[in-house]
Amino acid sequence: MELSQWRADMTRPEHTTHVARRWYMRPTEDNPFETIGHNIPQEPSLVESGTLWGSALTFEGIEIGWYWIVVCVSLKNLDYSKVFTMNFDVQRKSAGQDEWLMTDNSCETTLRTEELGAIYDYVRLRIHRQLYIDDIDDSCRLGINLANTDDNDNAGSIEVHYIELGASAFDSPSGVKDHVIYGDGVPDYFISVGADEPSRTKAVTISACEISDTKNHAATLHFTPGEGHINLWDLRTPDNYVAGNKKSRPITRPIGRVSFRVSPFLTAPEVLKEYMAMIAISSTGSQIVVGSERETAHGIPFQVFQMPPSKELLDKANIYPPATLTRVPSICPDLASYYGVGVFHRIDPTNTDEKDERFIIYNGITLEVYDTESWCRIYRLELGYQRGEEFTLCITQSLRGRYFCWNGFKGVISIWDIETGRIASNIYVEEDRAATYAVLSPDESKVAISVKGTVQVFDTVTGIKMGSYFEGLDRDNIFGIIFEQDHFLTTNRSLSNTNDVFMPNMRSVVRVRDMVVVEDYYVHEEFRGSVANFLSLGNILYPPSEEYSCGITNDCLMLDRPFDIFYVDSVRTFVNSEDIAFTAYSSQKYVAGEVTHTLQVGIGASYEEMTNTMTLILGKSLEHRIFWVRETSQLFVVNEGFLFTWSLSNVFTNVATLDRVVKFLDHDPDHAKHQCITDILNVKMCEHACQYTIEIKPTYWIVNNGFSTIRPPAGTPNNILTFPKSAADTFHTTQDYRNDMGILGLIQLYRFGDSDFKDEIIRFLKNRIRPSRENPLSCLVTLCRAWNADDRLALEQIVTELLPPKYITWIPDPHEDKSTEPLAILLEIAQTRPRVFGVAKAVMKYLVSHANRSKNLAFLSPLFGSMHEVMELYPEEALECMGRIAFIPVKNRAYIIDNHTLALPPRPRLRFWEPRTKPLIKTNEPIMQFNFTGEKADSSNDGFTRPVFMASFDALWYYKDQQQAELKKDGFEAASNTATTTWWKTLYHMFRLKCHIKLPAVVECYDFNLEFFDNPAIAALVAYKWNTIGYSYWLFRFLFQCVFYGLVVTAALMQVYYPHPSQLVGLFIVIIVVACIFLWLELLQAVHSWSRYSGSTYNGLDVVAFGLPLVASAIQLHSIFKGDTLISEGDIKGHTRFISASVLAVFMHMLFELRIHKQVCKYVMIIQQMVIEIRGFFIIFAGGLLAFTIATQHLLRACPVDDCKRDPTDFPEHFFYALSATYFFMGGRYDPVSPLFDKEDLGFHLMMIVYFFFTVIVMLNVLIALINVAFTKGDDGWRLAWIESRLRYIESAENMSHHIPGFRQTHDWFPKQIYFSATPQQVRDYQEKYHPGGENMSGGDGEDDGDEVDPIFDNVPRPKEEEEQQQSEEEQTEEQTGEDDAAEPAEGEGANGDSEQGETEAEEEGEGEANAEGEDEGQKDQEQTTATTTDETATKDSKDKAIEHNSSLDLRTQVSELQRQLTLQQEQSQKQFDELKELLLRATTTKSKK
């Protein structure tokens, strides 16, 4: 081009803009590709492909600030098809420096040619990353590099006409816009502040920027001398929706703006650089709040601005000028002086009503909620006593819906409910020196926590760790996490240029299910200079599903795939896209007397060259259809209605990994034992193996060992199988059914596989043990539902492998329905088939083990949900499980000690109106309830050194139905709007509820026997409830009973001492009324549960104590109304004696009611035990008395003839009185027969000798011995009976609390779990008593928390010594499998006699399994065991080599091991020191008391 022509082109309107500086390129003498910028127009500089071109530019005379860099180029000589990337880099050099460097004020942009579109003429390329000039002596060098797609190709060249610095306006006077180049990390929303001002050369500096939660509007704040400027932006403008050019146009025109005066001191560059402004925008963009995050003398005061009501917030056509925002004149005075962070927030994101939106402010200490109409405070939450930016940042990142996270206590992330103002859940993590941050998922079901240089994901309700991720993370824990349900976005500093703040940061999209990075993504800074970047997270956090979409294009090309039919001894070789050859060889083997076909797969071009082989089990079918996908290196096997997808690779440990298995044929019971043949006609599959269509002939079956076939009728159409399932699919099975049945098919194959194959099956199932979007139901549920006697050994092995006691795999859902809860499913099967207990026991062992290891009671939710059935079917196992969870230590002891409320036992106090308080260290056996105080820790609690344990109320009772079970949620439930109540309202509702004949019970205690109450956890639970609601309920009932006792005693005394007993009519009527009330309460108990009511001796005494006075009072009323003249003296005595008996009855009843007190219960228990022990003695003794009475009567009065006369005697002739006289002979009262001792009556004397020997010598001594035995038993078990007696009142009070409106909202007495303490000696004593030789229950703070997630779900690598230890344990387990499996049939028949007997009875009655089901079961189990042992022996050599390979540890691992051992020794020493300290404290206390 001629220079004159080029200069004429420079005068065109599109090349005339307001700029700070324009440079034209002049080549240097030394290098033609190095130029120097001049202000005199020059010939365009040529940049050829494959060369490095650069131009040095000076900043002399340019004002300090942010600037755009614009490069005017011509692309007409560039071949787009041969250019891969175009790189622009800006390097800096200060005065005195010799080299160009990439500094903090540098930037680099690498763009691909498709970003330019189809531009072949002049174009102004505006680099998206602005440049900051802070020194006029600086200079920069702009370099351009064109990278070819092929080194041998010449892609042409570009012409650089000039370089500009400045030009805030994107439009030239002719209307031509600059083309913005982004490079990596293209934002979805790009705002350029000040671009609507054509005369502006220097870019403004954004001080704060915020986007609305609807992602429709944004607000920016920047300053000029003496003024602050707010701009409101509509992100829905048409520029973002230009077809084919969506992400290359900025938003340059705001829809609203306002300016306000600020202190000139604030806008000084050195002050403004450190100033932190706060800005917030409402969801609709109608209101904007500005303020200062820190309290400064010249900061912005808190101000609220709003859009004019008549202004349209969506101005797509840009026909309106920007509206002027108006200031809200009246706000809460506390807000006017507020400094901190604030945000508009919708507690219910689905609610679009702007009136329900709230404004939340928080400074790390408090959180306040304000109404956005009146701007008045609604309520305030006290969070802590320490102010810090790390606390504010945690709330900012985690605020979601009703909940937010707070990190104010080391090692704890507390999740708060904004509506209730309470902590909904606590997540315990490792303590870290750096601050810990948390982010909630959109549905608040998960929380991602950054701690110790890792991202750990937890379940918010249970607090169970789901997995960890660590790649590319630092120890500062500031990872910029963005959580979107199934994935989260985090920084990846290993791939980011940390030396360049303008270089887009590398972010990794991590899948929560297995902590695998599914995509790496570059993102720009949120705002820098005058540019604000916003990213639509849905575009990157929801990548196309690996299961159901190709991930490349929506319309992927379907290709025909050849397939092979494999018979025995068939060999095929497959080559993938990387030219790696794999060989498959088909064979058959005999296992347990059955023929199964296998496919041996290995690396190599032939069968002889195969290495790293793996044997795949195919099943019993004689032939199989196999097709290969070269692009994805996947092998598809069709067999007996199943479709298996195997990935072959030379990278993994096993050459083949199972990706998917489905069964597309529906279950046909008529052909369950026949071999199914599915002939394939055609296979079409995309190159990514994510979509396929298979045409299959009608299925037929082979019967009689291959001698005959059953074929469908002629003319049956072919079937079509598609994935994902579409309308063209002709099979009637659903996709979920296919997945579930495919998993069940693996059980059969597992029986015949070797150890490598079994490991692969377990790996495949572990990937599906947690529900996900692709697998809504855990595979554990599918396996439990499919239990049968034939596969029980294989299923037990699979479940045991899936649920290891050391690593977390399955995470139980505390709110799971019983129809999808594995343990509940197994126990339902156990009702008729008790042998399922082997699998159920494996599940229970996993739950109990991880509850202890991870110190998390959430693992026990399935066990507690089915504890009623476990106690009914397997009471011994229930007692064992309860014992194992008696001492579960808390995870963060200091957190509980610093935030608790003591449940003190009731004591009489003179100042009863004052709250009861007592220091923790002075409380004997303290029981604590978590209660966050937010205050500084009480230093007096430092002297309390006992371990702290926790217990759940789910261990005490169960909820009667699923609806009532929702009441037990501890957070994450709907907020209750029920008002609080008062004591007199409570009494009114209690009386009203007692009038219902059958009040529905919400909770019901388990059928505990006394041995369960020796469990310290259950004792602590009962004690807490008694101290809070149980005692009050009993006391109110007992006081009412005392009124009844007083009435009965008063009636008895007045009949003795009152001169006019006939005037006691009113008293007897009151006794009858009160007795009827108590009998009504007894009727309610009987109706509620007759079995429990009739089984208690106390209830019988209740009926007597209330019924006898009622009858006696009725008789007295009858006597009074009948008149004295008609009543004889004997009748009067007979009528009043019922009152006498009533006095004794109420006394005994009062004594038994007081059994809730320790001392009284001890004696009541002894008396009760005596009665129980001597029941048999009473029968024998009564028989002896009866015999002696009859014998004495006969001896003294019997006559052989009619007119016989016997000597007169004082011995009573009436039989009852004679029996009484005989009884009192034992007491020495022989008056009726005293004269006979002086007579020579040999028969009488012999009778008295025998009587004396029988009663006084024999029976009384036997009675004394029995009473001694009863005393011993009663003295040993009275404490358990005392706890049980309290539990009955607690159960009634707990049910009553659910029916009294507002009671549970008024009183904080209903936590989900409580905390108690015990000395280490008490823990050891309990363990030695019930679990000798078991695992340690002490659970000190220094012990392993056990939050180790299975490596398949974890990204954090394990130390080599752990892998070696685990591998050694697995080898030992495999060696013992043969012995254990061989003994299994005998154990099933003899180890659990009750279960076997129950199953036998069920079979005899026709309610269990068919008789033929178990005839050959023992033989099959033994054959399976033999086969398993053979396979494991065959692979033992390879495992030995693997162990030798991993046995050597590097130096770092050895150092880590030494550090771990040293830490354990220090913790053990600290524990011993704490015990010694406690002993010294006790000795000091005892000495001071003396």
From TrEMBL:
It holds the Pfam family Ion_trans. Residues 1039-1273 form the Ion transport domain. Residues 1341-1351, 1362-1387, 1396-1416 have a biased composition (Acidic residues). Residues 1329-1452 are annotated as: Disordered. One of its GO terms (molecular function) is monoatomic ion channel activity. GO terms for cellular component: plasma membrane. Its main location: membrane. Signal peptide: none annotated. It is found in: Membrane. It is a multi-pass membrane protein. It comes from the Eukaryota. Keywords: Membrane, Repeat, Transmembrane, Transmembrane helix. Residues 1433-1444 have a biased composition (Basic and acidic residues). One of its GO terms (biological process) is calcium ion import across plasma membrane. SUPFAM superfamilies: DPP6 N-terminal domain-like. The chain crosses the membrane at residues 1034-1058, 1064-1084, 1096-1118, 1138-1156, 1177-1196, 1244-1271. This is Ion transport domain-containing protein. It comes from Linnemannia schmuckeri. The lineage of its organism: Eukaryota, Fungi, Fungi incertae sedis, Mucoromycota, Mortierellomycotina.
